[in-house]
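Lay summary. Proteins are chains of building blocks that fold into shapes, and those shapes determine what they do. In this project we predict the shape from the chain. Here is one chain we studied, written as its sequence of building blocks.
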Amino acid sequence: MNSPRCSDSNPRATRRPFLKSSAAVLLLAVLAWCQPAAAGAAGLEKTDLKFGFIKLTDCAPLVIAKEKGFFDDEGLNVTLEAQANWKILLDRVISGELDGAHMLAGQPIAATIGFGTKAHIITAFSMDLNGNGITVSKDIWKQMVAANPALKGDHPPRPIKADTLKPIVQQYMANGTPLRLGMVFPVSTHNYYLRYWLAAGGINPGYYTPTDINGTSGGDVLLSVTPPPQMPATLAQGTIQGYCVGEPWNQQAVLRGIGVSVVTDYEIWKNNPEKVFGVTAAWAAKYPKTHLAVIKALIRAGQWLDASPEHRQEACRILSEPQYVGADYKVIANSMTGTWEYFPGDTRAVPDFNVFFRYNATYPYYSDCIWFLTQMRRWGQISESKPDAWYAETAKKVYRPDIYLEAANELVKEGKLDAAEVPKTDGYKPPTSDFIDGIEFDAHEPNAYLKKFAIGLK
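And here is the predicted shape, written in a compact code that computers can read:
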């Protein structure tokens, strides 16, 4: 049967408007495809972005922002690229090969003050709270248990303090071969939390000096750098006897039967700040609307991650993919879903081990920056004493809660965030003594804080 169009007495005349309308539809489709996906893209200075990350579970906000479409909602076309180590990641952000990256909290701080690579890096987003652990080899654990009868059994009292390790450290020193412990980078949270734990137990982790960039001077142990994914293998080889690293590389050692997790960073400092999202100050100045859109997407990703157990399980499946963390789902889920396995037979509920949104986890607090600065000074990375005002001024150069708040308030206007979820703060957390040694930290008085430690520069 003929169609109505074909039955027209002048088929060619009828076909012209049809072809014109089809071309118009095709043109509109092409234009729509070429434009950023969301209305939020209007006015963005740059939409094609490449971000770097290290294969750790706390890269989750970046991964989820991409996989759940939060970047797309902001009109951003984001590529995520795993990096070999923290130095390469930082160098590529500075060179402009990466637009930004999942960073160690200490990296923007150290770069801005000129410890190591000099560059002005800022952060307007804190990626998570907690997330690290300290693991020792099975042999070291056996020696710890032998020296400390209280550690025997399937459920030793927690937290385990470093004074339980001290007899083993002393024996190694007496034999002329210091205990070797790994951490991921000189300005990593892992370095500072490992040093904090050791010093709280009376073990000197060593100092950085102008002639000792490895931070081993005067140390009772020998700390060295190992990239996170290599930690379990390096432990198994006997190159190191223990390490501090983020997940899933503590649980990997436990499940492989090569190590025992001794303590989590949650037990060293309850709800401690962890990674940040960092960009150069020049990049942020050149692409302010794009930067704001990125922070909006990351806030939503953090919110999604903490919204339900089901979301966490989905996140574990996504993170287990080879292009992201690439570890087994079970290994990632061991910590990401609210439990922690110290060793087989000692699995405990740790609901706050990984926090991505609760407790204002995404807000870049000045006080967090100042704590890291105190540890840089404590261990000699800052070689001279500084007045309290310097700590506050430096924090304001690096941490940018103003950008965070602008992004959060836009999300409130869009109905994607509750106003009650936006922190009302001057950028400082209240003083806290939630540390394994009970010493109180007040970010307004960093020099007074440093004087409280028996081990460390004042």
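What the prediction tells us: Confidence is low (pLDDT under 50) at residues 1-40.
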